[in-house]
């Protein structure tokens, strides 16, 4: 080895020695595909899914979480599931998870719920997805009794989906953390669902905004259960969504350890409050993430 190469190697090793010991490696290449929740760009997906996906790929996204499955027609964004998969393959993109509309089935008979779950499984398998996710409950369902019913339904769905060879998760918002006479829905869900059947999708924005916990604290209490993440920023004035790097959440400080979390996929998200429009916001968040945060993942 000549002197110049030796000095270069010594400099790199010296820098590595000064880095803090951490489960995050600042020098490794990304371990996860950069993902995006397509609800963030729903206006453009409704107009032209192909062009929207092409644009998202151009700015750096490789993987997606879908929404808006049409269970009766087995379609996504107007495409039969098999044709949507062909489009993804053509663009060399993947869909690793989906938000499916379970809320209307919370109080329906188990037979109706089971039929809907079967339809979701067929759709998810057509896309080669890994996860089916329960994303939301309606306002009238946010009582302690309904959270207990929800937990029972989550276990039933989780068993059906697990037996089909897929993963199932529940996505939090802020309402689960609201105090109701010393109890809250989130603790009911955590304590009354089977961790082997029901994984958790942590929305870090909502944890920061609505709970007394940090994402790290939640994951420490339920390690290996938070298999998917939602990453979005909070407007400094309104508290609404905003582009990554444009808000008040310091992800350098609050990002949990992906190994402790059991992380498999993450999705950048911005549900609205775009500075200009959804396309520009998607690109701005991608640029910030690649520059500032991708080194952790």
From TrEMBL:
Gene3D superfamilies: Divalent-metal-dependent TIM barrel enzymes (3.20.20.150). SUPFAM superfamilies: Xylose isomerase-like. InterPro entries: IolE/XylAMocC-like, Xyl_isomerase-like_sf, Xyl_isomerase-like_TIM-brl. It comes from the Bacteria. GO terms for molecular function: isomerase activity. Residues 54-255 form the Xylose isomerase-like TIM barrel domain. Keywords: Isomerase. Pfam families: AP_endonuc_2. This is Sugar phosphate isomerase/epimerase family protein. It comes from Arenibacter antarcticus. The lineage of its organism: Bacteria, Pseudomonadati, Bacteroidota, Flavobacteriia, Flavobacteriales.
């Amino acid at each position: 080895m000549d002197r110049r190469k030796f000095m270069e190697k010594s400099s790199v090793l010296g820098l590595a020695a000064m880095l803090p010991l951490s489960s995050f490696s600042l020098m490794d290449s990304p371990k996860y595909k950069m993902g995006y929740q397509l609800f963030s760009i729903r206006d453009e997906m409704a107009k032209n899914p192909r062009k929207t996906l092409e644009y998202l790929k151009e700015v750096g996204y490789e993987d997606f979480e879908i929404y808006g499955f049409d269970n009766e027609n087995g379609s996504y964004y107007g495409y039969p599931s098999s044709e949507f998969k062909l489009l993804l393959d053509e663009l060399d993109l993947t869909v690793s998870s989906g938000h499916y509309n379970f809320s209307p089935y919370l109080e329906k008979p188990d037979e109706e719920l089971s039929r809907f779950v079967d339809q979701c499984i067929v759709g998810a398998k057509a896309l080669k997805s890994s996860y089916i996710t329960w994303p939301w409950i309606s306002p009238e369902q946010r009582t302690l009794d309904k959270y207990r019913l929800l937990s029972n339904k989550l276990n039933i769905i989780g068993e059906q989906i697990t037996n089909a060879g897929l993963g199932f998760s529940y996505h939090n918002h802020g309402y689960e953390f609201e105090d109701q006479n010393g109890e809250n829905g989130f603790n009911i869900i955590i304590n009354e669902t089977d961790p082997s059947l029901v994984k958790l999708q942590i929305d870090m924005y909502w944890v920061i905004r609505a709970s007394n916990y940090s994402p790290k604290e939640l994951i420490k209490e339920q390690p290996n259960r938070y298999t998917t993440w939602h990453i979005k920023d909070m407007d400094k004035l309104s508290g609404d969504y905003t582009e990554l790097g444009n808000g008040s959440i310091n992800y350098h400080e609050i990002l949990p350890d992906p190994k402790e979390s059991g992380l498999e996929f993450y999705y950048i998200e911005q549900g609205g409050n775009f500075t200009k429009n959804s396309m520009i916001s998607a690109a701005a968040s991608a640029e910030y993430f690649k520059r500032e945060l991708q080194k952790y993942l």
